[in-house]
Amino acid sequence: MQRKNYLLKKRGVAMIMAIAVIVAISSILALSLSMNTQTAKNTTDTYLYEQSVLLAKSTTEYALLRIAQNAPCSNLDENFTQDGIYDVNISIQYIYDSNKPCEDNGGVLYTTVKTPEQNGSALIDVRVGVTSEDIVSEPIAYFRRTLQKL
Do 118 and 95 meet the contact criterion of CB atoms below 8 Å apart? Predict the structure, then answer.
């Protein structure tokens, strides 16, 4: 006696099983493609953010160099673009007591303080951002504030 598989001999059942297999494989491929796209985006965003952090540290050192090369209370605020990707803004606010060495304010921000320990400092704000829609899908920005004794 020979066994016969009557379920697969019917053409309708075999067609339904083939469609189910095709749907299962296509959904797995769609999920895989979606995950690959997100991974590439996250990798790019992480790389650009880490580069922004390093650029902000370097820009702070650059601002300190500019402060050392110029007269006290010089207006050293600056905006520039690095590598055509990063927008960098430097803002400096000087902190002196009422006997400050600034002769003419000239648009330079300064703050008066009460204690002698705070006299002769600079508050350096650095903002590094990536806003180009060709590179990132959402803007990346990093802010760094440094209080430096002069």
Answer: yes
Tokens 């300190």 correspond to 64
Strand, helix or coil for residue 135: coil
Residue-wise pLDDT for 39-83, tens only, equals 878 888 899 999 999 999 999 999 999 988 887 777 888 888 888
Cα angle 100-102-106, degrees, rounded to a multiple of 5: 140
Encode pLDDT of 108-133 as tens digits. Answer: 566 666 667 767 788 899 999 998 87
Residue 85's SS3 state is coil
Residue with tokens 């997100």: 38
What stretch of H or E contains 122? strand 121-130
Residues in the chain, overall count: 150
Question: Tell me, what amino acid is at 49?
Answer: Y
The tokens describing 63, both together, are 């601002």
> How far is 34 from 28, CA to CA, in rounded Å?
10
Cα angle 27-7-26, degrees, rounded to a multiple of 5: 10
99 touches 32 (CB < 8 A): no
